[in-house]
Each structure stands twice: as structure tokens, then as C-alpha cells.
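Below: protein 1.
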Amino acid sequence: MDSKPQIPLEVFRKMIETLPPEELAKLPPEKLPENIPVDLVEEAPIYSRSALESLILAANSYHLQKRLELQERYGEEVLAALDRTKTLYNTATMRVFRNKLSDMQKIRARWHQSHDEKKRDLLIDSVRHMQGQILDVRAENAGITQAIRLLQSTRPQKAEDQTIFDNAIAELKKGSEFIEHKLAEFFLLRLEVLNVEMQMRYREVLAFEEEAAILDQEIESLRQKLERSQTIWKRTFQRSKSNHEMEELQALIASLVAEKQNKEAAVSENDLTLWLDTIVDASVHPFTRHRIDKVIGNARRALFYLLTKYCQLQEASAMQIARNPFLQVDAKAAIRYLLMSEQFILDYFAKRKSRNAAWISDAAQVKMEDLERLEQDILSELKKSSRFQRLK
């Protein structure tokens, strides 16, 4: 942690291999990198190990003294901010995230090549399980942003400290941008993959809508028959026969209702929130928002359709209606579902804005206005698509 340029670790490795012991011993300790790996001594030529051990000991002593001086002048927080430069690309969080992202990119390549549905489903499942990891990565980058701001606001007490701060800030910004580029890679992959999932769910709902219409006609016909029969049975007083026939009709109706429920393509709040996250992240991130034109339109239309169906299901469940919620609805019901869908969007963005400040790094440069503009765009598009038009 010195203002003077240090010898890079890889350069130092080559010097160990090529320089004789007496030349190694002449290297200034303050020029050596911090945290030299222990295995460096074990890998060195036997004749150089003694000189190398002494040199590393002197370097460690020098850097420790510098750390103590910085800690005394600026405190633990500033020292911790400076220390972040040592682990920028190799924290546990980033290792796990990069490995998982790399694995998913490989699966995507194999899926594109083979069009194998199992690989597609594996990819969808893998992307869905990344939500917690994304929060961890964002939290880590938010910590880097805080470290940058702390160093920027700290007034150096010595001229050489300004160089230390400037170097650390530059390294932290570079690391933060690296993280944002990795997040952008994931956001693009997630949009591609979950758009496929949304289109699949849309087709399932649409197919169910057509089947449900037929089932509802059968159920309604049986209900009417049951009502007529009950009236006739009361008049004829054939209770034994009427009870038996009524039970048969009721069982048949129950069977058809159960069949319809089993075939129903459910849309959950968690699904909608994940799909909204997918669209919003890709739409507002500066490294992705200009690269999504081909897919974002279809993704939004599918989302609006599924959101409307979710609202219809919610109302049907709340009112305990056994009828199919996917049938055509009248104008008043359409307006009601639109208002419910709008409220879902408004609630989502209210929560999103409340945590936006903690998520966004300086490198991402996502402003509150970006979210507000996207919110208005989505609400406007939702109204245009509220006529239950089918996707092309």
C-alpha cells in the first residue's frame, strides 16, 4: 500500500527465476507487491530461497508499517476501503457468480446447437435460481461504491497518501465496472431465457383458454340439466331414483371442474415479479438497454397478457367462483382487471425504487428517472394491450 509503483507479482515471479540470489537481495522491499503467496518461496530455485525469504520478510514488514501509519491517520474504515482493492476479482461471491454464469453460457450454447428441450429446461431452472446470487453481487458492488465515495471524501494528510487514494479509487472503479459487465451478461442471458419461458407459459394459458371454454360449456349444460331434473324429481316424488341420478350428475360436474383445474396453467406472483425484474434490469442497465430491441417487445407483451390472467385468477379465487376465469369478460370486468394489473406494476416499482439506492453502483449509472420513465412506458403499453389481443 505505497504511492510508489510496485513490481507486479508476475514480473516478480520471473525475476525470481532469472536473477541470482545477490541481485534478488538488492531489490528494494518497498517495490515488492503486498501479500506475496507463500508458495513463491517453495517454487523458487533452492539457491535463491534464503535471499528470497529475507526479501519477503522485509517487504511484509514495510507494508505492515505503512498499514499501521494509514490506520493511525485515517482509521479502520478508510483502511478497509483501501483493502478492498486486494480482493476485487476474487471474493467468494464473485467466484461463485462467475462460475455459475460461465456454466449457464455453456448450457445455452449447447441448447442453441441441439435445440434439446431438456437443456432448455435446465437453463430456465438455473437462471431462476440465481436471484439470491444477484442480490449478493449487487450488495458487493454497493460496498465497493461506498468505499470509493469514502476515499473520495477523505482529505489526505500527506501528499503521498493522495496517490495511494487515487490509485485505490481507480482500481475500485475498474473492479466495479467489471462486476457491472458481468451482471449485464447475466441480464441479457436471463432476458433471452425467461422470454422463452414466458412465451411457453403464454401458449399454455392460451391452449387452456380454448379447452376451458369447451369444458365450461359441458359443465354449464350439466348444471342446467341438474336444475331441471331437480324440479322434475320434486314433482314426481321419485326420491330414490332422483337422488341416484342427482349424485351422478354432481359427480360428473365435479370431475369436469377438477379436470379444468388440473389443466390450468398457473401464474404466480413470484413468476410475475421475476419476469418484471428480468425486463426492468435489462431495460435500465446502461450496458444492456441498447442491446435488447429484438426480444424486449415480445417479452413485455407476454408479461402483460400473463399479468392480466393472474389478476383474473386472483379475483376468481377471492370470489370462490368455479367458472373459468379465462373466458371472455365484459367491458367493466376488463377495466377492473386492467386496474388490478396497473396496481401490481405500481406496487412493484414502489418496492424497486425503495431499494434502488442500495443496489446501483456508480459504474451502472442507473438513475431514479430511468426507473420512473420505464414505469410509465410499461403502464402505457399495458393499457394498449388491455383488450386481450392475442400475441402474434
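Below: protein 2.
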Amino acid sequence: MRKIIAPAVAAATALSLTVPAPATAATLTPFTKDGTNYCRVTLNDVERGPANQAERAAKTLTHGMYATSVVEAFEATFPELKKLGDDYVADPTVIEHLRLLRDDKTPEGDIRADARAAAKEKLEPLGLHTTDADFYLDMKEGSQIPLGPAGRSLKGNADWFVGIDGGVPKVQPLGDEYAFGHTGQNTAQWLRHVEGWQREAFAANMKKTYFAQVLDTLESSYYYALEESKTCHDGTSHVIFPTQDLKLPEAPKLENVDLGDATPEPDPAPKDPEEKPDEKAPETFDAKLAQIIGIVAAVLTALGALFALLQNAGVKGLPTIPQIPGLTK
């Protein structure tokens, strides 16, 4: 008899049963490396498809995608916010700051400090103060260059759902306040100074975003299974992972905004002229006439030689050979 853990994917506890390992359970292999115990997960054929789907989705959960989703939630919660945010990222010093970040360069000093201070003053009447305002402005900046070096890196625990099959669980504690499967609520906790109803509205709007929908689904489906997979050294030999494809939205396409310094595409190189076969130049009338006259002269010369032979042979009554003016012998 083997000990098998069947994680309850929608609850915080897992059900332990002492039953024969079913065909739909992943196998756990304990091993030790550098004095640390690990558990390798080997999925079966039914679990592998959904896990691959989860991995593809997890790879879209980048810092750039997170910033884009947070900005969507902010601007849905505070309707007047979008224009103020757009004005902020249009400031020349902010644009220069974004160019440096996009090009993976370290800014020397905060060249956008004055623009940031002015923007925060405008956000206060909306209820966004100090760190809440900075959170929005930071995310607004990040949403402008989601494909920059920082934007392309995976966000937080998105990495947990990459390489499940054949790998070891990467789940780590994220704090007592973290609620798995509730990204809207977890993100709203960063807002320390807004009214309670504003925080709740933000959490609800964040929940609707692509980032939150995908992360909530991945956490609800895989977190507890991965957590239980870490207990193979305690005797757990099998864990049941999802066997059905996950219902996930289509990933939006992310692009960096035009920061005004894009190098124009060079004009295409001119093509070499096509080589055409040599064509004989048309002959002029004079050239053609000279050719004809030459042929006639040659014929008459041949006839003259023939007539001379005939006359020497005594043939009488031969015609006179015509003369062409201008031809001399």
C-alpha cells in the first residue's frame, strides 16, 4: 500500500488517503543534493497536457503584463486617473527615463523627480497619496515598456508553474496575508491610504484583468499539488495533478510605446539592373544596301569567270554581263 495525496485544489487543505496509486497520479522521486532534500515530479500522460498549458500561460505573467493589468485596474477604479497618467508619461524627463530603462541603462539620478512630484500633487484629490500614488506611477511607467529587460522577467510565483514535469516544486511561503487564487485582493493590499470602498473596487477590477485571471487559475489548480509534492521524503509517493485543460483567456499582445527615438527603417537597397541578352543593333539602310551590292558583285565576278572559260572553249552567243556603276575590278 502506498500513501497518496490528493490535493484539494479549491481549499487550503489536502485529503490524505491510503489507497493504491491510481493511474492519474504523478510519481514523486526523492533525492538529495548538496545536503538538501528534493522531490522530483513525474507527471503521467493525462496530467502532462494541462501542465504544459499551465506552463505556457505562466510564461506570459511577466512584470510587463503585471504593470499593464495593474494600470487597467487603477484607471477603472479612478476614472479621472488615465488622463493624469498619460500626461505624466508624456513628460520629456519621464520619456528619457523610460528610454534608459528600455535600453537596460542605469539612470544617473532621478531626472524625472520634478515630473513625479507634480503628478503626485494632482493625484491627491483622487485619494491617491504617497506610496499609493507612487505605486500607480511606477506601474504606469512599466506599462509603457513591457518588453524592456525588466518587463520581460517573470513576476513572482509565476515561475512556480514552469517546468512542473520532471522538475522539483518551487513553491515558497508568501506571507500570512497572501490569499492563493485571489490576485485582486493580494494586489489591493499594496494600497495603504485609500478608502476601504476604493480598495475593494480596485480588487474587483484587478480580478478582471488577464494577469489576475491566469494567476488565480494556476494557483487554484496547482498550488496545493505542488505544495504536497514537497513531502516525498515524508513518505508521499504520488500526488494527483489536474487532468483537464484549464479555462484561460487569450493573452493580450504587449508592445513598447514609441518613445520618439525609433530609428526609421532604411530604404531597401536598390536592386542590380537585370542583365538582358545582347540584341543586335538594327542595320541602317546603307549597311543593308552595301551587303546586297557585295553579294551581287560576287555573283557577277563568278559569272565573268565562267563566261571566260566558255569563250575559250569556243562557245558562241554568250550574253554580256551587266555592269554596276561604281564597281571596279
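The first helix runs from residue 45 to 58.
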